[in-house]
Design goal:
The chain is an alpha+beta fold. The protein contains 3 helices and 4 strands. A 4-stranded antiparallel beta sheet has the order 2-3-1-4, with helices on one face. The two termini are 36 Å apart.
Length: 114
């Protein structure tokens, strides 16, 4: 499941009309809006393509000046890496979660050089 927030902008005089259009379009939920013509819409989709189609529908509405994704969450984003985080050395996790002074950290070079 993918969840994204989209910021839609319009001229303030078209705000009420655009809110109605978005509600009728049924591509997502209107989360918030202000009197300056900014609307936050939460969209969901099983795939990024589905979300992209919903974004394009918002962008195509009359009076929309812009409609851009502001935040994206995907519960399968790290799917290919599933389980990889469990392979991290326990000593490393202890160090990362400690209040170690930065001057005590030893730099060992870039990982890409290995």
């Amino acid at each position: 499941m993918n969840i994204s927030s989209v910021v839609v902008k319009c001229a303030p005089r078209y705000l009420d009309e655009l809110l109605d259009q978005i509600a009728k379009l049924e591509v997502g939920d209107i989360y918030a809006h202000d009197d300056q013509g900014r609307i936050i819409v939460i969209i969901e989709g099983e795939t990024t393509e589905e979300e992209s189609d919903k974004l394009k529908k918002l962008q195509a509405l009359e009076h929309v000046l812009s409609a851009e994704v502001a935040y994206v969450y995907s519960d399968t984003e790290f799917g290919p890496e599933d389980g990889a985080f469990e392979k991290v050395d326990e000593a490393l996790l202890t160090t990362l979660n400690s209040d170690q002074d930065a001057s005590e950290i030893v730099y060992r070079g870039h990982l890409k050089d290995r």
